[in-house]
TrEMBL record:
GO molecular function: glycerate kinase activity
Pfam families for the chain: Gly_kinase (PF02595)
Gene: garK
Alphabetized InterPro entries for the sequence: Glyc_kinase_flavodox-like_fold (IPR018193), Glycerate_kinase (IPR004381), Glycerate_kinase_RE-like (IPR018197), Glycerate_kinase_sf (IPR036129)
UniProt protein name: Glycerate 2-kinase
Sequence similarity: Belongs to the glycerate kinase type-1 family.
Biological process according to GO: organic acid phosphorylation
Highest taxon listed in the record's lineage: Bacteria
Source lineage: Bacteria, Pseudomonadati, Bacteroidota, Flavobacteriia, Flavobacteriales
Organism: Flagellimonas marinaquae
NCBIfam families for this protein: glycerate kinase
Gene3D superfamilies attached to this UniProt entry: Glycerate kinase, domain 1, Glycerate kinase, domain 2
Residues making up the signal peptide according to the UniProt record: none
PANTHER family noted in UniProt: GLYCERATE KINASE (PTHR21599)
Keywords: Kinase, Transferase
């Protein structure tokens, strides 16, 4: 029997690798000779770097970059063993995790540090860059990232603008005569699992501005700035970012990456599965066991489990989900394409209890699942 273990993390409880080890223990108590293949996954957001480091046989590259408020910090990104592929998490340089709650205000934050990591990867030889853009503290339309790569943004008086959300509406010209020479020879893919447009009621500012510290008045100001910036991008590059699904991701950095980096947006979990050689590993498997902290309606939209199911069904491999909690209906489980889904909780308690007992509960759930399979074979 061949079983692929392909979970996301249980946020705050277990890493994907820990999930694999625990579930394998439970299975082997019933099927000691089962082949269990570890393929933990992620959706491109914060923490993905810890999953893909092994798939890339990568080293962690240390670099001093600019944080969202223009302070110098040390950050890391991944560079593959052959130095051809880099994996960069935007949150390492431009994430809200770097700020105190009192410092959060996307009027004044920048993606400059993310661009600095891209530059470093280019100069170290990377020709393929995967950029995860989850967890940003910014709403600058990718201006900061672009500035690091040589773009210059100027106002009506010809003065260079600081690359922050506050200045989006002041941009009158984008100068492109000093771009990084290796930029256009590099394939850049952006892990993006949201479909928000650049501006408007469902755009970057109006949907995410409040959680990044903007007031209602500032949200309106930022949205108008993004609308103006989109017009400048259209006239300069002949690209209408408003028409691109996901352009509003990470405060408009999704659209900025397409325009300034010639990047393509792709599902985060699809990109991680690609790095994990997931489709090849699936060949000949009997089951995939996946999981995450909570199985709910959001799992439908770009989450790891959804990506696992899509790949598994192409090869007629059955999928089981062992999750911290299951908050979906039978109909939704069927719609997701899951063949088995269960909460690992075995007693009523609070979140702290669940986290404290997660290893024991997960091993028991995997043992019970394996026993069910054994009964089916007898």
């Amino acid at each position: 029997m061949k079983i692929i273990l392909a979970p996301d993390k249980y946020k705050g409880s277990l890493t994907g690798w820990e999930f694999c080890e625990i579930v394998a223990r439970g299975i082997k108590k019933v099927f000691p000779n089962a082949e269990t293949v570890y393929r933990p996954l992620a959706d491109g957001g914060d923490g993905t770097i810890d999953v893909v480091i092994d798939y890339l046989k990568a080293s962690k590259e240390k670099i001093v970059v600019t944080d969202p408020l223009f302070r110098k910090i040390t950050a890391f990104y991944l560079l593959s063993e052959d130095r051809q592929t880099a994996f960069i998490e935007m949150s390492e340089a431009s994430g809200y995790k770097l700020l105190q709650k009192s410092e959060m205000n996307c009027m004044d934050t920048t993606t400059l540090g993310t661009g600095e990591m891209v530059v470093d990867a280019l100069e170290k030889g990377a020709r393929n860059i995967v950029l995860g853009i989850g967890g940003s503290a910014t709403n600058d339309g990718g201006m900061g990232m672009a500035q690091a790569l040589g773009y210059v943004f100027v106002d009506a008086n010809g003065n260079q603008l600081k690359p922050i959300g506050r200045n989006l509406g002041k941009v009158r010209e984008i100068r492109t005569n000093n771009l990084h020479p290796k930029l256009m020879d590099t394939k850049i893919q952006v892990a993006c699992d949201v479909t928000n447009p650049f501006y408007g009621e469902l755009g970057a500012a109006k949907i995410y501005g409040a959680q990044k510290g903007a007031t209602e008045e500032e949200i309106t100001f930022l949205d108008e700035g993004l609308r103006h910036f989109a017009n400048i991008l259209r006239s300069t590059f002949k690209i209408d970012v408003q028409e691109i699904h996901g352009a509003g991701a990470a405060g408009g950095a999704g659209g900025g990456a397409i325009t300034f980096l010639n990047a393509e947006l792709a599902s985060g979990v699809d990109l991680v599965m690609q790095l994990a050689n997931f489709d090849k590993v699936l060949q000949g498997a009997d089951w995939v066991i996946t999981g995450e902290g909570k199985l709910d309606s959001q799992t439908f939209s770009g989450k790891t489990i959804n990506g696992v199911v899509k790949s598994a069904k192409k090869q007629n491999v059955l999928v089981a989900a062992l999750c911290g909690s299951v908050e979906v209906t039978i109909g939704q489980i069927q719609e997701m394409g899951l063949d088995y889904a269960v909460s690992i909780l075995n007693e009523v308690g609070n979140l702290d209890d669940a986290k404290a007992n997660v290893e024991e509960n997960l091993e028991l759930a995997s043992y019970n699942f394996a026993n069910m399979l054994k009964l089916g074979k007898s």
